[in-house]
Amino acid sequence: MKLKKMITKIKRFNPNYGYRRVTLALINNNVVVNHKKVLRLMKALKLTTNSYNKKSRKYNSYIGEVGHTAKNRLHRKFKTDRPYQKLTTDVSEFRYGNQDINHRVYLSPIMDLFSDEILTFSISEHPTVDFTIKPMKALIKTLPN
Question: For a FRET experiment, which of 15, 115, 116, 137 has its CA 20 to 30 Å from that of 74?
Fold first, then answer.
């Protein structure tokens, strides 16, 4: 009973204390007691703290379908028997200097999947639509019929 009164007194002055901190407070008051006994008594007295429990759900930044998804025309068939049949492109960001927003450059190469050769590329400081279309227009002019 004496231990229960001490636990309720500690919880009254420190409502956010859990069983571990209550145990430390009891030990500081020269009461030797096991933390499991303190937890058992706190549960019986309904003095457990819900302030510091685990998150009920994890963070999720998914906002749903955004924009238009292109059709899958390759179906993971990346090899071809004819040149210029399948061309791919990608935009890559490279950082240099201070590696801040002002020290970035973007590369957009166009690769032929027949020979894995880079046919043309474009470099820009800003990733715009014109930046990605410019090497494709230049390639169309140089391709054979």
Answer: 137
Q: What are the tens digits of pLDDT across the range 63-110?
A: 888 888 889 989 999 999 999 999 999 999 999 888 787 889 999 999
**pLDDT digit string (tens) for 38-65?**
999 999 999 987 766 666 677 788 888 8
For residue 128 the two structure tokens come to 């715009």
DSSP string for residues in 51-92: TTPPPSS---------S-PPP--STT----SSTTSSEEE--E
Whole-prediction pTM value? 0.52
Q: Which two tokens stand for residue 13?
A: 């002055």
With residue 14 as reference, give the H or E element that holds it: none
Tell me whether strands 87-89 and 117-124 are parallel, antiparallel or unpaired: unpaired
